[in-house]
Fold this protein.
Amino acid sequence: MRKNIVAGNWKMNKTFQDAEELISTIAGELDEKDLSCKVIVCPPSVYLEMSSDYADESILSIAAQNVSSHNNGAYTGEISASMLGSMEIAYCIVGHSERRKFFNETDAELSEKVDQLLDYNIMPIFCVGEQLEEREKGIQFDIVRTQIEKGLFHLNNDEFLNIVVAYEPVWAIGTGVVASPEQAQEMHSFIRGLIAEKYGSETAEETTILYGGSCNPSNAATLFANKDVDGGLIGGASLKADDFVKIAMSF
Ligand code: PGA
């Protein structure tokens, strides 16, 4: 049975003190709840160690937001998968649209990041999604297919079983314009179909596919009610403990 996951991507927000207050409030609130999903918090990398102190692998895990495509060495400012692994970080976002857009991350580089993470037993949360113009042209399925084929389809079946996919239409990220439940379900089912074609239906059924883009406590339940939507990657609403915990309670 695939896992339902709600992951909070804090992006480049919060001072150390505010981050500690947020993670401790989230951990405290989750402790009292009966959850039907796994919760992941993705703080900025400088707060990973502090955040890990509040994690409890059965309910709350910590993820990095990015990783280097290189193993180790002279890459000033980069953080390697071996470093994350040595801190027992269990997940890492790869290929968020902001990384693709502002840091020119290519499909080839992203596939190397995926390999690095898998080498250190860290599960990639691999983001895909089309831009507004691409949806307007009706090519959203081609875009997502290419992102998945180039970033992930070099993996073998056992490796692929460690992948979480996040569908994040770029036009919905941080805009307040959320995909309709039908749009989300349609794309999630398309993605699961691609995985089934390549790896078989058993692997496809085991793969968690998250939705991301303006997900909040009011729309989470209708999105997560769809058969192929296994949770969310939450940006803005993950910066407020109450909203984030409400989203995690939306299954
Ligand atoms: P948002 O961001 O929830 O603020 O739209 C989602 C994301 O970027 O992962």
Q: What stands out?
A: The mean pLDDT is 97.
